[in-house]
Amino acid sequence: MPVIEVAEQAGVGADGCPRPSEDYLLVLDNAVVLLDGATAPSPDLPSGGWYAGLLSARLADGLRAAPEADLAAVLAASITAVAEENGLRPGASPSSTVAIVRWTADRLDGLVLADSPIVVFGRSGPQLLADDRIASLRGNGKLQTGHDVRLRRNAEGGFWVAEADPIAAGRAFTASWPLPVVETVLMATDGVSTGVDDYHLFDWPQVRALVRDRGAHAVLKAVREAEEGDPDRIRWPRPKRHDDQALAVLDFR
């Protein structure tokens, strides 16, 4: 069992007002599950946080019931169950990113769907398991409006996220590592990874060093302080002044 440290902090809504975090981070006996609920495509629908809470609970049940099952299969079954139990329809439902790290006696498995990355540090340095499809579409100017998002979500040539169609689970990125070579694992929602990918405050090795020196909350604080210095979102255009933040650090040494 690794030593696990977590740090979480709520952001603000699109209106700039405080509201509960829509990130969900669960620590299980042999896994960590991290979800980031996305804004629903319509104000008439439940929130992404509502969906992420239901899906994270289903994922936890599936991982406990089958500790070595294929992660994509567990995700597909969980998406199906939440959709059926709550009458959710593909294309008209809230959604969530998914990141899962699961360890067995001899290996570490990871799964990422949408923009909540996993970084595995080993003898050969850090290895990034990430889904950059959303970032690529934004960089190409193809996700400028809500209509763009709805059009390209869970569609070929677009991006994939957990919603109401289990086919998305098959579009997740997965990887495995021999457990003896794994030293540290970082899992983050985009409210944290933006400090690496967009703000360029640090790289992932520097994130690990900051955690070791000052704790996981220091990483969240550094990102938040950078955003406070750009209150009008001019230097770093973003939908909200502060996003929800969640970071898990797994130390296997």
Offer a quick outline of the entry.
The protein is an alpha+beta fold and 253 residues long. Helices cover 32% and strands 26% of the residues.
SSE string, helix = H, strand = E? EEEHHEEEEHHEEHHHE
Question: Measured on Cα atoms, how large is the radius of gyration?
Answer: 17 Å
| Biggest sheet, spatial arrangement of strands | 1-10-9-6-7
| Major beta sheet summary | 5 strands, antiparallel
Total helical segments: 7
Straight-line N-to-C gap:
10 Å
Mean pLDDT rating: 95
The fraction of residues assigned to DSSP E strands is 25-35%
Structural class: alpha+beta
What does this protein look like?
- There is one protein chain.
- This protein has 253 residues and is an alpha+beta fold.
- The protein contains 7 helices and 10 strands.
- The strands form 2 sheets. It has a 5-stranded antiparallel beta sheet.
- α1 crosses α2 (71-86), α5 (190-197) packs across α7 (216-228) and α6 crosses α7 (216-228).
- The longest helix has 18 residues, at 48-65.
- The mean pLDDT is 95.
Q: Key features?
A:
five-stranded antiparallel β-sheet; 253 residues; 10 strands; 7 helices; globular; 32% helix
Please specify the SSE layout and strand pairing.
Elements: E1 3-9, E2 23-27, E3 31-38, H1 48-65, H2 71-86, E4 95-103, E5 107-113, E6 118-122, E7 125-129, H3 133-139, H4 146-152, E8 173-178, E9 182-188, H5 190-197, H6 204-214, H7 216-228, E10 245-251
Antiparallel strand pairs: 1-10, 2-3, 3-4, 4-5, 5-8, 6-7, 6-9, 9-10
